[in-house]
Amino acid sequence: MDSALAIDRLHFAFTVTFHYLFPQLTMGLSLLIVILKTAALRTGNAGYEESARFWARIFAINFVMGVVTGIPMEFQFGTNWARFSRDAGGVIGQTLAMEGVFSFFLESSFLGLFLYGEKRLTPKLHWWTAFLVFLGSWMSGYLIIATDAWMQHPAGYKVAPGGELLLDSFWGLLLNPWILWQYLHNMIGAVVTGSVAMASIGAYYQLSAKFRTHAGIFLRTGVIAGTLATLAMIFPTGDGQGRMVAEHQPVTLAAMEGLFETAQGAPIAILGQPDTERLELDNPLLVPNVLSFLTYRRWGAEIKGLKDFARDLWPDNIPLLYYSYHIMVGIGTLLIALMLLSAWFLWRGRLGETKPLLWALLLALPFPYIATTAGWMTAELGRQPWLVYGIMRTADGASPRVSAANGLFTLIGFLGLYLVLGILFLFLVQREIEHGPVTGGAQ
Fold first, then answer.
1. pLDDT tens digits for range 184-240
2. Omega before residue 236 within 30° of 0, cis
3. Which terminal residue of the chain has fewer beta carbons within 10 Å of its beta carbon, N or C?
4. 273 near 282, Cβ under 8 Å?
5. Is the backbone peptide bond immediately before 368 cis, with ω within 30 degrees of 0?
6. How far apart are CA 333 and CA 327, in angstroms?
7. Residue 163: DSSP 8-state
8. CB 37 within 8 A of CB 126
């Protein structure tokens, strides 16, 4: 691989991975805050209102960090990926502009009203500000997913005489069949992140014997929402997304599963190490026929292996793709088990006094972030070697005049800047957690 192209890919991978640490929490929290506000409106319980305020402050910190880290990615399209922007900007520019003009401003405007307008608005109007923040957040997610879905499965475009890709059908772009399962899987994943974060902070307060009323609310809300969301990550959203990959990107499916030989009744690999030189999976732990059943609902269905595809169509880093996919699935499975066990103890009224389980919830905080990052790595590594699947290769989209040295220089600068931003973020969140969901007016 060209060194400048490798740096460009690494640069964008770093900036988008760091950026997405923040939106995944805001998108998940936006729904949970609406739930807390609804409970406060119906019950009149001040604890729910204070809990909503607390998580709104956490939301606001993440929102600001998301904006600050998101803007440079827009510029990277022009600086590091100029040929991609030139040739595909007529399509992706539509959704990216809509995300900024409509969704972002809707979310940011009503977030200000939610944070500072509680004393000036009636309780019902204040609930509507929370709902509109949620709506803006999830609309923003849809438009970003629509952009990525077009790169995974191009639809609604035409090729101009000069080779540029132009928008041919606005609704074809927004209703791309790839979007449905990818969007639902992504947004439910954000709810998992928000739910685990809420349950984790609730467990921290419970173990610390602080804010016990709010700790109970955090635990109940986080565990119930987290249980439903983690189950939905497997079915129907994960199942639907997996079947889309099998239908439209079969070589990606084979790489994700480390399947080199075409098989009828293909097994699913629980463990193993893909060897791309000997074209086999080392030390495999396999469950026979399961991959065929999950993909086509038939135990004996044929799944094509990597050997049946031309080598230049293979994802260019099969081991990393394979491990990313299995890390996502492995962590997701553990989170399901944790949430189901927590829900059982919650139903029995014993969660608040079961310290090992509270510690497990507390320590689970980083794992949804790891799983989500691994999931996005699976999606983007699986699309390779294509930037726009089947149309433009990644090597053809980079900027021809940006050298490896230039890219490395700016990458090092971003590493330093984002380190400072990360420390600032942790300081601000830690301060809010120590301050706690105190009583009083909106802050």
1. 999 999 999 999 999 999 999 999 999 999 999 999 999 999 999 999 999 999 999
2. yes
3. N
4. yes
5. no
6. 10
7. S
8. yes
Is the peptide bond preceding residue 177 cis, with omega within 30 degrees of 0? Answer: no
Q: Is the pTM here over 0.85, yes or no?
A: yes
- How many whole angstroms from its chain centre is CA 388? 20
Distances (CA, A) of 396 to 292, 375, 392, 426: 35, 25, 7, 39
Distance CA 353, CA 325 (A): 36
The CA-to-CA distance between both ends of the chain, in Å, stands at 52
How many residues would you count in the chain? Answer: 443
- The pLDDT tens digits of the residues spanning 172-187 come to 999 999 999 999 999 9
- Measured at the CA of 443, the angle between CA 219 and CA 36, to 5 degrees, comes to 30
Which of 188, 173, 303 lies closest to 243, judged by CA?
Answer: 303
What are the structure tokens assigned to 412, written together?
A: 């090092």
Q: Tell me what pLDDT residue 441 has.
A: 38
Angstrom distance (rounded) from CA 40 to CA 124: 10
- Give the phi and the psi of residue 208 in degrees, each rounded to 5: -85, 0
Phi–psi pair at 142, nearest 5 degrees: -65, -45
